[in-house]
Specification:
Number of helices: 8
Number of domains: 2
CATH superfamily of the largest domain: Response regulator
CATH architecture of the largest domain: 3-Layer(aba) Sandwich
Helix content: 40-55%
Largest sheet: 5 strands, parallel
Order of helices and strands: EHEHEHEHEHEEEEHEHHEE
Radius of gyration: 18 Å
CATH topology of the largest domain: Rossmann fold
Shape: elongated
């Protein structure tokens, strides 16, 4: 099996060294960048399997780098774990809105960080093993392999998290998912992030899906499901 490559983007040399030791001890390959533009150049030359990205960086901060990477088709699928000293909820929400896959605040537990990275890799491996297909219903075409959604031929612009939510729900129509379950499915996180964060993403997903969004049903006190009728017209 090919070793996973992880890029550490962090301007603190001590933290970079700590992360490098953690990563190499797990058998993964670590590379490093101390500045924003340096990170983008390294990613362009040799795309990693995952990026640990500090929020506060010289030249370009982590949010700007995340925005650039997720806006480029060649790098949009690379998972990003945000690493920052800031722990406010607003920072987590901004990071997720830009497409970050997870968020860890400094000072961090090395065990926690490893668990989150492994959860992301497991999730990606599961998606690779899944049979690629195109799902058509109610004038929508959802291509799970290309990760695109079209309505009457026009692209619907979904964030990574919104697409993953739609994918998770459509795989099992009629099944109720708790908020925590959906967080773990699409973000690989747990109680460290407020589970109600998922409500914001569901709300925006419904809005972008227009009339089809009504099929994403709220189950009061539990979570969400997509109605079985959503899959009737293929």
């Amino acid at each position: 099996m090919t070793k996973k490559k992880i890029l550490i983007v962090e301007d603190d040399a001590d933290i970079r060294e700590l992360l490098r030791q953690i990563i190499t001890k797990e058998g993964w390959i670590a590379s490093e960048a101390a500045r924003g533009r340096e990170a983008l150049e390294k990613i362009k030359r040799s795309p990693p399997d995952l990026i640990i990205l500090d929020l506060m960086l010289p030249e370009l901060d982590g949010k700007e780098i995340c925005k650039i990477l997720k806006g480029n088709a060649q790098t949009a699928s690379i998972p990003i774990v945000m690493l920052t000293a800031k722990g406010e909820e607003i920072d987590r929400v901004v990071g997720f809105e830009l497409g970050a896959d997870d968020y860890v605040s400094k000072p961090f537990s090395t065990k926690e960080l490893l668990l989150r990275i492994k959860a992301i890799f497991r999730r990606l491996e599961g998606k690779e093993e899944a049979t690629a297909k195109i799902f058509r219903t109610h004038d929508f075409e959802i291509d799970f392999e290309r990760r695109t959604v079209r309505h009457r031929g026009k692209i619907v612009d979904l964030t990574k998290i919104e697409f993953d939510l739609l994918y998770a729900l459509l795989k099992r129509p009629g099944i109720v998912f708790t908020r925590d379950h959906l967080l773990q499915q699409v973000m690989g996180i747990d109680a460290y992030v407020e589970s109600r964060t998922i409500d914001m993403h569901i709300s925006r997903l419904r809005e972008k899906l227009g009339g089809f969004g009504k099929h994403i049903e709220t189950v009061r006190g539990v979570g969400y499901r997509i109605s079985e009728k959503a899959a009737e017209e293929e």
